[in-house]
Amino acid sequence: MKPIKNSFLLLASAAAIATSAGLASADGVAYPPLAPLGDPPIPADNPMSEAKVELGKMLFWDPRVGGDASTACVTCHEPGQGWAFGDSLSRGYPGTVHWRNSQTVINSAYYGQVFWAGSAASLEKQAPSAAKGAVAGNGENDVMETRLAYIPEYRARFKEVFGTEYPLIGDAWRAIAAFERTLIVKDTPVDRYLAGDKSALNADEIAGMELFNGKAGCIQCHNGANTTDEKYYNLGVPPAERWEEDGLAQITFRYELYAKGVTEELYRKLKDDPGLYFRDKNPDDMGKFRTAPLRYIAYTAPYMHNGAFWDLEEVVQFYNAGGGENEFTDGTIASTKTPLLKPLGLSDEEVSQLVAFLNAFSGDELQVEPPELPAYGLVASD
After folding, report:
1. How many CB atoms are located within 10 Å of the residue 333 CB?
2. Which among 122, 305, 325, 380 is placed 20 to 30 Å from 102, CA to CA?
3. Is residue 12's pLDDT more than 90?
4. pLDDT digits (tens, 9 = 90+) for 207-266
5. pLDDT of residue 117
6. DSSP β-bridge partners for residue 17
7. Are 194 and 174 within one domain?
């Protein structure tokens, strides 16, 4: 099976029943039902235009928007790998290894929070965080701006789109975000079925949908049109294997612990990703990550924040067993594992049906022709 890529999938619990208000679990809590995906929101301060999208596409592919001109957005978000990266941990800046799994850019236009721990509130804020991150793009604003200024075609395009005499790096992020808002996949079997085409899903997929909304309890967290409540949970996902086997990955993990400011005690003891704790330093959020959407999931393995699982059956079996145990649930650190995870009792047939339904969220792969990048050149003086 081709490696496909990450997702937070199916949080389990009690059965759910359909109601006029949506889907309600046996405990009486209502959840937004699955729905066809509409058009993505466009921020008022970054309106779309064909020229801006085309500029953003070029910058998305251009490694000069980074540290040593070797690492572009597309380096970690490859179209042929689900617009992500098909390994457990993403690529890192030369000489490093990244410390988390690369998420797909597909449908990221719908997110209210970006990155596994929600550290960016928009695509405009995500782009510089990645391009300038020490183990990602490692870029510096002045260096990147200077490179763009010495490319005549970029000078002309930035002036057309933003009205500036010289390219400004903040406008580069806006252009990249505009391009990413065109990477939408919403013509899927699930969307067509929910829109009224009852022939769009086969019998196994329909049975899987019933499990999703009922016995498996997936709807509790993977709900609404974008299949995520955008909340944070510790699922007991096992630590990244590469932290035990890969020296560079271990160094990156230790660097992130130091750079993000954990206590000395935690620096010495932690063997797993603190997740949301990095952002708020709240012990109750140790090991929690944002519920990832399920859309385009057939192309985006491995799954979870550290690529712990390589196919969807493995993921479903993880939830079927009630999740796992990690460093945050062994008594060293108070347990933060979500109580939603309980053994589900799914049969092998039900596991297969649920996997079939999950695959129906994907549709066709999105193909985009790579742009031709402009060359450096002489810049005429005024």
Report:
1. 20
2. 325
3. no
4. 999 999 999 999 999 999 999 999 999 999 999 999 888 999 999 999 999 999 888 988
5. 95
6. 24
7. no
Give the CATH number of the domain where residue 274 resides: 1.10.760.10
Q: Is the pLDDT score of 154 beyond 50?
A: yes
Contact between 295 and 37 under an 8 Å Cβ cutoff? The reply is yes
Residue 275 CA to residue 245 CA, distance in Å, equals 21
Q: Is residue 245 part of a domain?
A: yes
Q: Are residues 167 and 200 in the same domain?
A: no
Question: Are 194 and 176 members of one domain?
Answer: no
- Angle at CA of residue 14, ends 13 and 17, nearest 5°: 125
Q: Mean pLDDT over residues 23-50, rounded?
A: 86
- What was the pLDDT predicted at 14? 33
Q: Are residues 281 and 339 in the same domain?
A: yes
The DSSP annotation for 47-69 comes to ---HHHHHHHHHHHH-TTSSSSS
Among 375, 374, 372, 289, which Cα is nearest to 338's? 289
Reduced to 3 states, what is the DSSP secondary structure of residue 159? helix
Average pLDDT over residues 39-43: 96
Q: Domain containing 129: what range?
A: 53-76+113-180
Nearest of 64, 63, 66 to residue 74 by alpha carbon:
63
Task: Please check whether residue 92 lies inside any domain of the structure.
Answer: no
Residue 326's pLDDT is 83
Residues 143 and 290 in one domain: no
Residues 266-317 have pLDDT tens digits of 898 888 999 999 999 999 999 999 999 999 999 999 999 999 999 999 999 9
Mean pLDDT of 128-147: 96
Rounded Cα gap, residues 163 and 222, in angstroms: 42
Residue 292 Cα distances to 27, 50, 112, angstroms: 24, 29, 12
Token pair in block for residue 30? 């209502």
Distance, in Å, from the CA atom of 175 to the CA atom of 46, rounded to the nearest integer, reads 8
Of 180, 205, 235, which residue sits at a domain end?
180
Domain membership flag for residue 1: no
What element of type H or E holds 23? strand 22-25
* Strands of 218-285, DSSP E: 232-233
Q: Residue 277's CB: how many other CB atoms inside 10 A?
A: 25
